[in-house]
Input
Amino acid sequence: MCGIIGCILDNKKAAPILLDCVSRLEYRGYDSVGIATSGSEIKIKKDKGKIEDVHKNLKLTDLPGARGIAHVRWATHGLPTKENAHPHTDCKNKIAVVHNGIIENYKELKSKLEDEGHIFKSDTDTEVIPHLIEKYMDEGNDLESATRLAIGNLKGSYAIAAISDDEPNKVIGARKESPLIVGKGENEYFIASDAPAILHHTNKVIYLEDHEMVILNEDGILIKDSEGHEIQKEVFTIDWTPDMAEKGGFDHFMLKEIHEQPEAVKNTLLESSEIEKIVKDFPKFNRICFVACGTSYHASLTGKYLFEKLVGIPTDVTLASEFEYSADTLDENTLVILITQSGETADTLKALRLVNHKAKTLAIVNVLGSTITREAEYVVYTRAGPEIGVAATKTYLAQLTAIYLLAIHMGGKKELLEKLNKIPSYMKSSLQKEEHIKEIAQKYRDAQDFFFIGRGFSYPTAMEGALKLKEITYIHAEGYASGELKHGPLALIDDGVPVVAVVPPGRSHDKTLSNVEEVKARGAHVIGLGSSLDDDLKAEVHDLIEFDDEIDEMFSSIPYVIPLQLLSYYISVMKGIDPDKPKNLAKCVTVE
Ligand code: M6R
Output
């Protein structure tokens, strides 16, 4: 939800580097920003607002010192105000802390600390942490032991970074249920919420586990377990390059990421033999259960249709946040497939922990070394590269690719690989429709409501089209299975309401076309997606987005969703919204 950074540099000013790194985490939160550096005394600059604006007003890079911590906030406790912006400090302003997560018992801790004389300045849950560290340092503990004692009091989730005036050469990090990585550069050391934030400085990272603590100082990195014993951990080299996390000439990350999709799919297709190996190791399953949130849930819905068709095993799909209420009947004959680009989503992680070792678990994840990859029994990586835009695009298509591969190998249908390998070329022609999509966006940009409809494989595509539009244009949009319309939502169709109908050739085609006629008869403006040879569809729609006739419904999920991503993107830009940072949303949702 929030993003945190800490660093110790060799004779370099920390503030500009902290600002650079924290700007790369802005997708995690953009309510407020703050930096604290340590030297002879802790200096802090922070305020509400986007990083760019706060920096313009406060000159964040002016802070002195070669060590420090930084934070971007996505408000959970307390309004987005200057007082609630991180870093938070103790009573004497000698300790500063940044935090990502939620401290569930903060009210109880706060009132105890207030009884002991601590004065609080914010409404946040986080502020209890510097006060707890202060309390334990006042009792004679050093920063490391005081932090360990402080976090021992916390219930909930946290990734924190802390500094203190009394030990200006140290930055301490700790985590429980919120991500935190350690970066090992040349005489410079980092902690961060994720790897792309520090890729410009190092690609060598260590993944911290829950209850581990890291101590950065000029001599290097020390990692300790919850008891304070030093532990050795593997250093991973990330094969993402820094320019992968840049806009590369595009106006927004989202547009760049939409254009990177053919590459993301091609790279994920290279995982085919790895997936084949994993599948060979599988026992016989009698049930498959997909678990995911948001866009990853839509990928899972496509998985249900594919697995039932190609693998022939009953498959269901559950939203990760609902999983705990329906997981009782899973056993060792069930394969639970968790889909998550970040590998850190709290709901999905909770579902994994609930079912791990009771059923077999396989995670499809984009971020190397993320928490879910370390806990699931089997892992399939999508090769989309870092995704910065809050709206998932290329990771969705990479997830779909991994699901196709899994279904093809589990179902023993290798002959379908030839068709799958053609998808990147279909995607390129979807991207060539950009100018046409811009015209459609211009036509419908002021609509109040949008409906997206489709059947079978096209139903998740409709759902994803509606989610993208809601997220980045703030237009009310609904994704429906077309057959459901007449069971209620049809009452909402009026003159001029745009209905996007996903109608590829295949089994569902004729029925969806009848639904198109139904909405048209009630005044809807229909934007149809279908084959260039589909004259029946052409006759019914107001706007047509055409695709190669070769793409049947089973393989339409990837090429057909691209124009819908572009439609949302252009409406968002036309409305003056920043599609990379939609209001109220964060890229990685690490709270339940
Ligand atoms: O990292 P995950 O794939 O687990 O994230 C799941 C959702 O939070 C995510 O897909 C969200 O819906 C996106 N903002 C969609 O664009």
About this structure: The chain has a mean pLDDT of 94.
